[in-house]
């Protein structure tokens, strides 16, 4: 008799890996726990206040930009203690930002006063920059005229600058052989210029009255030079 053998069936998949579960169970199938988003209400409120504050400031600037006033702008350098002049002023319309600039309508009254500090071109004038009396042109001061040659003064000088007045002895001079300072910080009061704005050498300076005779004597013999003091205003 012919006996037929029953073919062996395929072994179950899990038979090769006893105890294995169906489906993926590795690290890729596991999701990390997600922490709930931390809320910071204080920071959110601060950001909202900053946004609102910026919008309010912008609105105020826009509203005030149409509210303009006529102020005084300085067009020429005016030294500390020098008289204000209308020739050194011009009218300029500006936005009313709350700063107390001197109004253009008061220019004639301003011209009767003096600069408290050195005023440079482009300065918008405020009341604190002007005084009614000058310490430079008051008692104890003198105005001395100098006729200087090229090399005895810088070409960068301008009215209102502070200068040193220096004795520079000539050969055979009677004032000694060593140079010395005659005035530490004199004010350049007036100056003639040539084409291009360079100084011609004809200047007037304000010095202490006690120094005026010596400076005038050395100036007459051509033994005077002036040095600019850019840091002194």
Automatic annotation (TrEMBL):
Q: Where is this region: Disordered?
A: 1-36
Ranges that cross the membrane: 42-63
- Membrane as a keyword of this entry, yes or no, is yes
Alphabetically ordered keywords of this record: Membrane, Transmembrane, Transmembrane helix
**What protein am I looking at?**
SAF domain-containing protein
Q: Please name the source species.
A: Streptosporangium carneum
């Amino acid at each position: 008799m012919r006996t037929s053998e029953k073919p062996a069936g395929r072994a179950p998949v899990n038979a090769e890996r006893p105890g294995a579960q169906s489906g993926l169970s590795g690290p890729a199938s596991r999701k990390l726990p997600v922490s709930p988003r931390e809320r910071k209400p204080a920071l959110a409120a601060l950001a909202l206040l900053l946004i609102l504050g910026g919008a309010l400031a912008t609105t105020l600037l826009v509203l005030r930009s149409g509210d303009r006033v006529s102020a005084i702008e300085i067009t020429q350098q005016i030294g500390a203690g020098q008289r204000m002049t209308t020739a050194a002023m011009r009218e300029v319309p500006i936005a009313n930002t709350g700063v107390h600039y001197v109004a253009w309508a008061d220019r004639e009254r301003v011209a009767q006063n003096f600069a408290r500090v050195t005023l440079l071109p482009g300065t918008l004038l405020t009341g604190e920059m002007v005084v009614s009396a000058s310490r430079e042109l008051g008692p104890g001061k003198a105005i001395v005229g100098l006729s200087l040659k090229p090399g005895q003064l810088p070409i960068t000088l301008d009215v209102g600058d502070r200068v040193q007045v220096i004795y520079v002895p000539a050969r055979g001079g009677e004032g000694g052989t060593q140079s010395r300072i005659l005035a530490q910080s004199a004010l350049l009061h007036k100056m003639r210029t040539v084409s291009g704005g360079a100084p011609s050498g004809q200047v007037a300076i304000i010095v202490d009255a006690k120094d005026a005779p010596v400076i005038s004597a050395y100036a007459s013999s051509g033994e005077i030079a002036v040095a600019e003091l850019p840091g002194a205003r």
